Structure to design on (398 residues):
């Protein structure tokens, strides 16, 4: 059995060519809007979004751009196999929170790594084209060990007092710092500790699937293709899951809409600040509603309704209960849209659609469900902050 983790020689932006890494890094491909893309590309001719994100099927240009940056020394390969300690600091309710982990190569063992969400075909087709033209892992997937790891904490405490190799801000002004771990003993201890843990994919399901397919097709072309680049962390306090609200176009009058919901729920009109307080409770399934500029709180009126969901683990997951008990009550027009804040969801909803405000998933429930091999509905979790793309790249080697 191959070892779970491997150090590698990453491709990195050249510090002699780049003054501020905040100008060249970017969020993951799937959270960059058209406006975000315009802003990112205006920051620098070398912003990583120019390689990461295709427009109008211009995949061959992504390869040319990537190769050009390598030829010009904008991107350079590290001189030694390393793990990369990655720390993010963000604020929640004015309190500073830290999350940390390591970027490594991760063996794609489908028996030991558990995805937790279903995937869409369109993003997979896009990432398939990207990986074929650039022949690289451009962004790490996000993986959580289902336990606290003593070695990770020890190594983090050792390196955090050193000057980081990279120190930059993301678009939300969160601090991102990166250190190279090249001490053989530290690398050996980290690899051993993670190899013992159950590993859950928190973000990057599409990239995991297409990387595995790519390995099966091209395993004789490149070395270590059964490994992909991953950020690995453990169950630490800095793991924040934000809610993912649903915006839906429902074909129903107000009378029909509320009559359907009242089959299962008690509904009260409330002010937004009161709704936010009520949604903090975890006693029984509940959610918020924004419809025609009015805000409501809906609470399951009987625990017996959860019997419609035979798997008790899924009864703990609001997104699953919502998709089983609420959405089937209505005729839906078009696609569901998603938002992570109430204010943004209200703005997207306008006067013609309906927003459903869900509580964030509980990390323990996500791990329990995933560890059993079950999958969550799409957009069930949103881990914040997102990992920056462009900090570390893994090119495939022959």
């Amino acid at each position: 059995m191959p070892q779970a983790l491997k150090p590698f020689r990453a491709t990195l932006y050249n510090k002699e060519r780049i003054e501020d890494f905040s100008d060249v890094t970017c969020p993951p491909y799937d959270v960059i809007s058209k406006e975000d893309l315009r802003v990112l590309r205006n920051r620098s001719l070398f912003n990583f979004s120019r390689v990461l994100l295709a427009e109008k099927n211009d995949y061959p240009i992504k390869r040319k751009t990537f190769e050009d940056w390598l030829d010009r020394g904008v991107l350079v390969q590290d001189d030694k196999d390393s793990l990369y300690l990655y720390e993010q600091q963000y604020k929640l309710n004015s309190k500073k929170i830290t999350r940390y982990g390591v970027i490594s190569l991760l063996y794609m063992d489908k028996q030991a790594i558990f995805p937790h969400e279903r995937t869409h075909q369109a993003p997979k087709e896009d990432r398939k084209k990207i990986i074929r033209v650039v022949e690289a892992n451009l962004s790490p997937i996000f993986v959580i060990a289902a336990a606290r790891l003593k070695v990770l904490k020890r190594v983090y405490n050792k390196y955090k007092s050193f000057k980081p190799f990279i120190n930059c801000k993301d678009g939300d002004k969160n601090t991102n710092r990166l250190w190279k771990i090249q001490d053989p003993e530290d690398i050996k201890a980290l690899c051993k500790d993670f190899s013992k843990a159950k590993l859950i994919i928190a973000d990057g399901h599409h990239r995991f699937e297409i990387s595995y397919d790519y390995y099966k097709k091209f395993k004789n072309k490149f070395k270590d293709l059964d490994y992909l680049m991953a950020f690995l962390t453990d169950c630490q306090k800095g793991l924040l899951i934000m809610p993912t609200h649903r915006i839906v176009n429902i074909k129903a009058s107000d009378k029909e809409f509320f009559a359907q919901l009242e089959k299962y729920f008690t509904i009260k009109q409330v002010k937004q600040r009161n709704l936010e307080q009520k949604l903090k409770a975890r006693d029984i399934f509940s959610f918020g509603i924004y419809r025609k500029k009015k805000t409501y709180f809906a609470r399951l009126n009987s625990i017996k309704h959860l019997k419609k969901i035979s798997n008790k683990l899924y009864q703990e997951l609001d997104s699953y209960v919502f998709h089983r008990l609420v959405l089937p009550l209505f005729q839906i027009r078009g696609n569901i849209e998603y938002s992570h804040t109430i204010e943004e969801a209200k703005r997207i909803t306008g006067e013609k659609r309906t927003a459903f405000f869900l509580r964030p998933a509980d990390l323990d429930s996500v791990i329990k469900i995933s560890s059993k091999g079950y999958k969550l509905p799409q957009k069930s979790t949103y881990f914040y902050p997102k990992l920056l793309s462009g900090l570390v790249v893994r090119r495939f080697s022959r």
About this structure: The radius of gyration is 22 Å. The mean pLDDT is 92.
